[in-house]
Structures are given as structure tokens and as C-alpha cells.
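Following up on my earlier thread - several people asked me to post the actual chain instead of describing it. Fair enough. Here it is, all 351 residues.
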Amino acid sequence: MKYRIYYFSATGNTQKAVELITERLKKEGHEIELLRINRKSQPLPGTPDRMIFAFPTLSWVPPILVQRFVRRLPHGKKEDGSRIKTAVITADGGGGLQSPDHLKRMLTRRGYDVFLSARASYPDNWLQFVPGPDEKHKQEAIANGEKMTGEFIEKLIKEEREYYKVPFIHVLWSRLVGALFAILGRRFMGKMFIADESCTSCRLCERSCPVKAIDIAKRKKARPYWKINCESCNRCINICPEKAIVSSNMRIGVLVVAITATIIIALGLYNGNIKPWLMETIPDPFFWFANTLLVTIVVLFSHWFAIGPFDRFFLRYFQRIPGISKVFEKGFNKKFLRYTMTGYKAPREDL
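Reply from S.P.:
Thanks for posting it. Predicted structure:
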């Protein structure tokens, strides 16, 4: 039987799970096709007998690049009318919530028969806010993740139909948080990053970014700059050999102030110029909807302006001014322990 495994791994948790799955399936005599997902990945040709999706959970949703890849998949219905049987597993740092079900729904809409969904709890790599584990807790968490992956493998081989579920109230709030993360959160969190003076311009972060969100100028001692399309997968901060990447306290503060100021100015212009015209033009039953929609657009635009043009054309240069740069390079997570799976080597994604 031919199994096709599509996966994305930020710091090695998912890759470890995939290695365990692949090893067991090969022992069972199955043929395996593997594809690591990045920004350029396209679905493999042909039709497999079974398909597996493996990915980390980022803010309780599958990574955006994984979701985009799924939308590029061909329809899961075969020529004989049957659907490709598919399994989903997410490697998370302690809470997948609706993430496995999120991808299950996406695949089902594309015609795939998702018969199994599960999560495996590995060490957390979210160094933007949470310290990495010490060696003892790291090994304990890895062992737990491998145990949960093993349980998934047994159900996969037996083709047990089972889905990972959470209470509906958790589905609701995690979907909301996930949507906000996809639209705004991941982009803002990418803008928190800065490389301090210990950066050697080795370009490892730039080469390894799965969505090419990191730029380093072609000059000596240039430092990375994070663009607006960051996935917030935390690969870069965890693999930096000099631990030079930090979440800048000052950048966070300046961007929050810039977003707030832009919202206040934009809403002031809207309330003074556009809203009165709407009240006169649109009938009352529709005014509330139109007003809410336009205010939402104003807020989203303000956020985009602050982390986009304001950062790209002003803040990124302002933070380099001698003296000021020292303040921007202070990060609350500088001393956090980094985390990558034992034996993990970040792949080159810029080829």
C-alpha cells in the first residue's frame, strides 16, 4: 500500500513523529512518499492509497502555510468514486484544541475521507513568550510525545475511525483566537523579533525560514529583518547558534503605540467625514452593519499600517541609530532556554 505523508515541522517535533510513523509503516511493508511543506510546495502527482498530514499547532490552528497547501490539493475523490483515506496528527506543546479538527474539516471539504485525527504533546518551542524546557523536562516531554505518536500509529494501521475532540466552548474560542492569529497575531509576533549585537550574520535564520519572511541585506554585519508574512513558527529564534534573536521590549512598545495612534487618527477621520454621510445615505436597518464593517476595516488597516509601512520605512532604520539600537536590542527572552528536537537540523528553504 502506498502512503503519502505531507508534513511541516518548525523545530523537529513533527519531523520526529513523521520519522516514527515512516519507520513503522515501512516495517509493515508499505511504500512511503514524503513531502515537507514550505511556501513553494506543490502536491505530488498521482493518487496514493492513504494520506497522512502532520504539522505543529500554532495558536490552536494548523500553520497558515499548511492551510494554503491543503487548498492546492486536487480533489480527494478517486475515479472509482471512493475517497482517499486520510489521517491527521498535530504535534503541539500541550494543547491542540481544535487544530486537528480544523484540518480535518478542510480536507473533508476537498473530498478526502479523514478517518483519524489525533494530537501528540511534545516540548513547547514558543520562545517568544515561554522558556524552552531544561534537559530533564525536554526528555520527559519527548517521551510523552513519542508515546502518543505510537498510539496514533496503531490506530492508523488498524484504520480505526476516531477523531480528537474538545468541548464545543473550547472550539469556539480557539477558532476565534486562531482566526485573529492568522490575520494579525502571527504578523505582529514576527515584528517583535530583533537580532542583537551577538548576531554574526550567518544567515541561518534567513535560509531556514519556511515562508521567506526574513531578509538580511547583502553587506557586512547586516542583521535580519522580519517581514509581514511571518508564520510565527519560532524556528529562527530556536535555531540561532548565537542566541542573538530576541523579542524586543522596545519594538513591542513602539508598535503598540503606533497601532493605537493610527486607530485613533483613522477613527477620528472616519467619524468626522464618512460616518455622517453614511447616516444620511444608508437606511437605519443597514447602517449598523455598514458602520461595523467600516470600523473593522479601519482597525485592520491601522494594524497593517503600523507593522507594514511604518515599520518597513521608518522603525527598522530608526532602531539602528547608535545608542538607540542598544535599547531596542533588550529582550525579555534573551536568557530563555532554546529548544529543538534532539538531532534536528533545520532544512534550507531558500533553494
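The beta strands are 2-7, 31-36, 50-56, 85-92, 113-121, 193-195, 214-216, 224-226, 245-247. That should answer part of your original question.
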